[in-house]
């Protein structure tokens, strides 16, 4: 398994094993190709310990959106375009 970090455990209805149990919310670095450019970004996902090794991860819709947003931010930074977060940071410093 790739290295990932545990963020927290959430008691929820797990779509993978169809049971309500504690699912691990984890994060790791992933690579995506945006406009032909490879960027490494941080993504969050849920991990089910009950499911088999082949398919033990899933994302909610909002999580997927957030991950994509992260990837786009990394792309912007790489190409010298400021992210909205950074603009706030500059104003506050
Ligand atoms: Zn599960």
Question: Topology of this protein?
Answer:
Layout: E1 5-13, E2 20-34, E3 37-47, E4 57-58, H1 61-78, H2 84-92
Antiparallel strand pairs: 1-2, 2-3, 3-4
Structure description:
- By secondary structure, the chain is α+β, with helices and mostly antiparallel strands.
- The protein has one domain.
- Helix content is 29%, strand content 40%.
- The protein has helices at 61-78, 84-92; strands at residues 5-13, 20-34, 37-47, 57-58.
- A 4-stranded antiparallel beta sheet has the order 1-2-3-4, with helices on one face.
- It starts with a strand and ends with a helix.
- The relative contact order is 0.16.
- The model has no long low-confidence stretch (mean pLDDT 90).
- Bound molecules: zinc ion.
- Zinc ion binds next to loops.
Would you summarize the structure shown here?
The protein has 93 residues and is α+β, with helices and mostly antiparallel strands.
Q: How would a crystallographer describe the biggest sheet?
A: 4 strands, antiparallel
- Topology, number of strands: 4
How many discrete domains?
1
The proportion of strand residues reads 35-45%
Please work out how many helical segments DSSP would assign. 2
Low-confidence stretches: none
Question: Structural class, from helix and strand content?
Answer: alpha+beta
Average residue-wise pLDDT: 90
Bound molecules: zinc ion
Strand order of the largest sheet: 1-2-3-4
Order of helices and strands: EEEEHH
Radius of gyration: 16 Å
Helix amount, in percent? 25-40%
* CA-CA gap between termini: 39 Å
